[in-house]
Amino acid sequence: MNFCSQQYQAHSIKAHFCDFAFLRNLLAFLSLMVVVWVISAFIFSAPSFAGNGRDKSIIPRDKTNPLSNLWSGYYYSTKDIQALQKNRAENPGFKYVTEGAQLWEQKTGTTQKSCAKCHGKPSVSMDEAGARYPQYYAPLKRLINLEQRINLCRKTYQGAKSFEYESKELLSLTAFVRSQARARPVRVKIDGFAKPFFEKGKAFYYQRRGQLDMSCANCHENNYGKQLRSTVLSQGQANGFPSYRVAWQKIGSLHRRFQGCNKLVRAKPYAYGAEYYVNLELYLYWRGTGLEVETPGVRD
Amino acid sequence: MTNSILARRGVIAQFLKASFLGASFFVAIVLILSLLSVSSVFAAKNDEKKAKKSEKDTPKLVEYEIFNLIQSKSIPKPLAGKKGNRKRGEALILDAAKGNCLQCHVIDQFLVKAKKNPDVYGNMGEIGPSLDGVSTRYKESQLRLILVNAKLVFPETIMPAYYRIDGLTRVDDKYLDKPIMSAQDIEDILSFLMKLK
After folding, report:
1. CB-based contact (8 Å) between B178 and chain A?
2. Residues in A touching B124 (Cβ below 8 Å)
3. Architecture in CATH for domain A73-299
4. C-alpha Rg value of chain B to the nearest Å
5. Per-block average pLDDT, block size 10, for chain B (197 residues)?
């Protein structure tokens, strides 16, 4: 078939362009390119799905890490729980993130400043904090975690009262700030001033405690991946916190999880925000260096 | 016809030639190998001679077997002179507030019961070894010690000491200065374990 006027010679190059077969081939080629483009776009945009949880482990760069492979707690969760975490619309933790976003914009305290007033766009100013905390805070000569940093801002810059630890407000703001670092690799600083606190956290981790006389390592270093009655033990990583737990029916802080694990072995837990727990928090984040921040994680 | 016969003859001749070549190769290789092995035998004999010479100077290592002395530690007498009750022992093994043994151990005979009653018997843990046949592996006196304080048998173990109150850290007030189980509880569990074949 020929769509062009008859003035071209049958075998001239111009005639060739008018050939139906040629057009058909061109069309096929173009549609193939579109398919390739769509697929590659899908593959290369994968990082935008990241932070939802991964089925792969990573190998820690620091050779002193006692774990040879790092797995997020996501990996040890049931398929249902994983699906819940992955799906932004259904992940119950995002409800708190949204509330945190509102608190971020809210003017409050004697200065009537919002967080946004000082920090601007959270995706820019808070892109890293969630991967970096706890960190050393010179005025107090100790570590502070993200919750405590938020409360410091409230007191010093907003002229507002601290939020209670484990209050809905503090959990929401923490989840919001940490979720800005989603998909970023955890990388806490453990040298310099942080060093002695890191060592204390490590000592806490390996200390057997409670009537059952078990350390964190007994469960999360020596027996992860194994069934402890009806649950599979994870590596006890911190990268999903604050996490939504089905057992809690709400979001909860890492310190709440610490208390839970302490109670499991019938040990006396420490208070929320206790220095022991903040040191442990630093040590735990270091053990997970390189894992992606997944806040808000979902666990059963 | 004749053509094809001729052709066939050619094929046969070629086959014979090839097989002759193959066979001579085979023989050659066998010869070389056997020569090698003979020479290595000689070499070995030489080594042996050398070894015999040096035997006088260096002592010889004889195979030996390690007996785990630690495992023979035991508590021969029943705790507080109690007599165990097997039925009660089974209940204590299942009880999450008492033995809670299934948190870490599997007991095969519970697998059947788990089908009917998964909440009580199901989801056995995989942290410790299976408890089936422990009575054939240990004496009652040894099992008693494992229950009282497993760390005296397996120093780094995760298994809790069920009859111990000293040397613990930050025990919750509710459990302070109390062992996880009573002497009677432990004897009951023991009598269950001794019947586990």
Report:
1. yes
2. 227, 229
3. Orthogonal Bundle (1.10)
4. 35
5. 49 59 64 59 51 54 55 86 96 96 96 91 94 94 95 96 96 96 97 92
